Amino acid sequence: MAHYIKPGRLEARLVHGTVGWLARRGLSLAGTAELSVRGRSSGEWRAVPVNPLDVEGGRFLVSARGEGQWVRNMRAAGGGRLRVGRVGLPFTAVEVPDEEKVPLLRAYLSRWGWEVGRFFDGVTARSSDEDIRRIAPKHPVFRIAMGE
């Protein structure tokens, strides 16, 4: 069974809805953006707020909650759109193998741990590589290439 921590109804509606609404209007909270990915069954665009991560010249999307619908849709679609403001920029995505995630998850927790730390089983940016390696399979990471 895939690991996933589903947001509560209030969080999904109030927090995610507000952050997505702000991103669509060009207001990014601490770097958030709205991710749109085509549904793997319906083909309809699905949107969710995300925290893009820039590390060593690469751009990444990390799923703090685990294998949610956007992750499954991304695997099927191979890309999507990131939006802050009126323009949604297309990108392609490739999933990062678990053995390459340690520096990326450390950077993500360093940048976004205040917001998403509760989803990482007590692991923080200061945790050992071994601890981060242990939780890596629970958190899909995608390398994205904009404009493709």
Task: Describe this protein's structure.
- It contains four helices and seven strands; from the N terminus they run αββββαββααβ.
- The chain has helices at 9-24, 69-77, 102-116, 129-135; strands at 33-38, 45-50, 53-55, 58-62, 79-83, 88-95, 141-146.
- The protein is an alpha+beta fold and 148 residues long.
- It has a seven-stranded antiparallel sheet, sandwiched between helices.
- The protein has a single domain (9-146), classed as Electron Transport, Fmn-binding Protein, Chain A (Pnp Oxidase, Chain A).
- The N and C termini lie far apart (32 Å).
| Cα-based radius of gyration, to the nearest Å | 15 Å
Q: Can you tell me the residue ranges where pLDDT is under 50 for at least 5 consecutive residues?
A: none
Overall pLDDT metric: 87
- Which bin fits the share of residues in helices? 25-40%
Task: Please outline what is shown here.
With 148 residues, the chain is of the alpha+beta class. It has one domain: Electron Transport, Fmn-binding Protein, Chain A (Pnp Oxidase, Chain A, Roll), CATH 2.30.110.10. 32% of the residues lie in helices and 26% in strands.
